[in-house]
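quick one before i forget lol
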Amino acid sequence: MKFAIKPVVLAVALSTASLAAAAGDTWTDTAKDAWIDGKAETTLLFNEHLSAFDINTDVKDGVVVLTGKVEHEVDKALATELIMSLDGVTKVNNQLTVMQNQDDGDSEIMADLKDSKVETVVKTRLLFESEVSGLDIEVEAKRGTVTLSGKVKSEAERDLAVAIAKRTDDVKNVVDKLKVVKAVS
């Protein structure tokens, strides 16, 4: 009888361990989705062309679902581009409702929106990088050229900020106007 009980106990122990492992993966996935959701909401908040209060985000397995309303079709496209550029996002399901249907074929408007997207993405990446004083760095984009200005604490921080900007989609050139300001002891 002792020998019959051991396999049952072993099977129960393995089942419990396997359930615990599966629960751990679910927790990890949930935490990752929450992180992506926070980055998505922050990105929308920092974009001056979109109202983050009118756009809701929900994330499941790296897929971001956007719901709410925007003024124009171009705003809907901008929201998709901004969120798709975030690390960890695998897909954007854009269910935003367009309040005014406007066919903006004007390339000037599209260029301005692309610049706005680039500014937002660079600024968000700087804010999420713990080794960079993202709040002290201004970001401007014009036709693919990003200008960084403000204060950093070291040459290494300057180099990291410039590298982050250069790694961003649609950035062709980075103008470094950052000033290294040593902390006073």
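fyi The chain is about 50% helix and 25% strand.
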